[in-house]
Amino acid sequence: MKKLIAIVLSLILTLTCASALADITIGVPDDTTNEARALQLLADNGIIQLKEGAGETATKADVIAEGIEIVEVQADQLVNQLPDLDYAVINSNFVLDALDAGFEINTALLVEIEEVYLPRANVIAVHGDNVDAPLTKALVAAAKSQQVKDYIINTYAGAVLSVVDEPTDGYDPDVDYAALAGSKIVVAATPAPHAQILEIVKEILAAKDITLEIAVFTGYTEENPAVDAGDAFANYFQHQPYLDDYVAQTGGNVVSVGIIHTEPMGLYGGRQADLGALGK
């Protein structure tokens, strides 16, 4: 009799745990490299498993998990969808956008480790024909300045991290700034933190009579084509794996010329306030 009771209790416990994990929805970005990155964060923390060999192109089809539904959402819409999801893995730039807009969102429950987010540092990219152009060098030197590094440290409280080890004073000693006076460049960027950081870059270049116009885009799809088509001189919105994927898919001639900052991706609670629903 005692053995039977023990079996019944064990079964009830098993069913209770399974129920606790049933229908848990986790939103992830739907673009190739960021979806894989989000899934890796979940796998690293034991929330899901990924099929053997799943790497930089992993999708929900590679997920092994019971009671968890992975929901693919356009990256810039994840914050808006968060109230309808249990959790979501969100790029910190979109979290910053939401906070600036007054959206209430809790602190990340899990954050990527350094070994994962550093290789995905955000870059300034230009058309391949402009890699060695004086304006490119001037733009990169301003973006890699101590002024920009200080701004990142003082503004984003760890949600954005500068990866510039040897900051400049804002200028490249090999550039003839007098010859560039009166020049204008357009840089395509997403709102936060990229366009905000570029405001500092704009001030640095303005001191040398170079005008920087910031063209703000709210998604990921237009910035690289703008550079390819010559509608923008440069862009600042993406990490290197995303740029690599764009070039591989389109044959575009967009090239990274400077690594500026990184944005650790985090798991945020929607309907759930903590990791309890995941048994954590």
* Helicity range: 25-40%
Shape: elongated
Mean pLDDT: 90
Gyration radius, rounded = 22 Å
Describe the fold and architecture.
The chain has 280 residues and is α/β, with parallel strands linked by helices. The chain folds into two domains: 2-112 and 266-278, Periplasmic binding protein-like II (D-Maltodextrin-Binding Protein, domain 2), CATH 3.40.190.10; 119-262, Roll (Dipeptide-binding Protein, domain 3). Helices cover 39% and strands 22% of the residues. The protein contains eleven helices and 13 strands. The protein has helices at residues 2-20, 32-44, 78-81, 92-100, 114-117, 134-143, 146-156, 177-180, 191-206, 223-229, 240-250; strands at residues 24-29, 49-50, 63-64, 68-73, 87-90, 110-111, 122-127, 161-162, 184-189, 211-216, 234-239, 254-262, 266-269. Strands 8-12-7-11-9-10 form a six-stranded mixed beta sheet, with helices on both faces. The chain has a five-stranded mixed beta sheet with strand order 4-1-5-13-6. The chain has a two-stranded antiparallel ribbon with strand order 2-3. Strand 9, helix 9 and strand 10 form a beta-alpha-beta unit. The chain is elongated and about 65 Å long. The model is unreliable at 4-21 (pLDDT under 50).
Q: What labels describe this entry?
A:
280 residues; alpha/beta; D-Maltodextrin-Binding Protein, domain 2; Dipeptide-binding Protein, domain 3; 2 domains; six-stranded mixed sheet; five-stranded mixed sheet; 13 strands; 22% strand
